[in-house]
Amino acid sequence: MVHVSFLESPIGWLRILSNGKGITEIKFVEFEGPDDPDPHTESAKTQLREYFAGKRSSFTLKLLPEGTKFEHLVWQELQKIPEGTTTNYGTIAAKIGDPKASQAVGKANGKNPIAVVVPCHRVIGADHKLTGYAAGTHRKEWLLKHEGALLL
C-alpha cells in the first residue's frame, strides 16, 4: 500500500510517498492532493517543516528509494555532502571508485527520487555553475541559499 502526504514549502508543494516501511519518494509537484498518511510520511513532513524553518540540517528518516545498485551508491554519497557545501559530479564519481563515471553520476543524480532529504541540489558543475535540477534550477538556487552555500 502506498501512503501519501503533501507539504507546502516555500518553493512549492512536496508529495511524500511511503510504502508503509519507509519513504520511497519526495518530489516537488504543482498541486496538493488528498492525504493518506502513515507515520513515515508524517515524520517526513515534520522534519521537512523544521528544515525549511532553519531548525534542521539533517534528516532521520527511513529511506527506501527504488533504483539500481549504482544509483543507490550515488544517492548514498549524496547524503554525505554537508549542508552549506557543494560538490561536483566528478568528485562523486571519484569517491565511489570510478573517476570516469561523472556522466553516469549526473544521470543517477537526476533520477534521485527523494528531493531535499537526499541532497542532489548540492551537486553543481565543475565550473561552479548551477546545473540542471529536476525540480528547476530556481529551486536548486533557493535550497543552496537557504543552506548558506550561495551568497545571498
Briefly say what this structure is.
The protein has five helices and five strands, in the order βββααβααβα. It is of the alpha+beta class.
Explain what this protein looks like in three dimensions:
The chain has 152 residues and is of the alpha+beta class. The chain has two domains: 3-52, Double Stranded RNA Binding Domain (2-Layer Sandwich); 69-146, Winged helix-like DNA-binding domain superfamily/Winged helix DNA-binding domain (Arc Repressor Mutant, subunit A, Orthogonal Bundle). Helices cover 33% and strands 16% of the residues. It has a three-stranded antiparallel sheet with strand order 1-2-3, covered by helices on one side. A two-stranded parallel ribbon has the order 4-5. Helix 3 (89-95) crosses helix 4. The longest helix is centred in the first third of the chain and has 14 residues, at 39-52. It is globular, with a radius of gyration of 15 Å. The model has no long low-confidence stretch (mean pLDDT 94).
CATH class of the largest domain, anyone?
Answer: Mainly Alpha
Number of domains: 2
Q: Compute the separation of the termini in Å.
A: 42 Å
Q: So, CATH architecture of the largest domain?
A: Orthogonal Bundle
Overall structural class, as computed from helix and strand content, comes to: alpha+beta
Question: What is the CATH homologous superfamily assignment of the largest domain?
Answer: Winged helix-like DNA-binding domain superfamily/Winged helix DNA-binding domain
User: What is the CATH fold-level name of the largest domain?
Assistant: Arc Repressor Mutant, subunit A
Describe the strand arrangement of the main beta sheet, using strand numbers: 1-2-3
Approximately how much beta-strand content do the residues carry?
15-25%
Question: What is the mean predicted local confidence, pLDDT?
Answer: 94
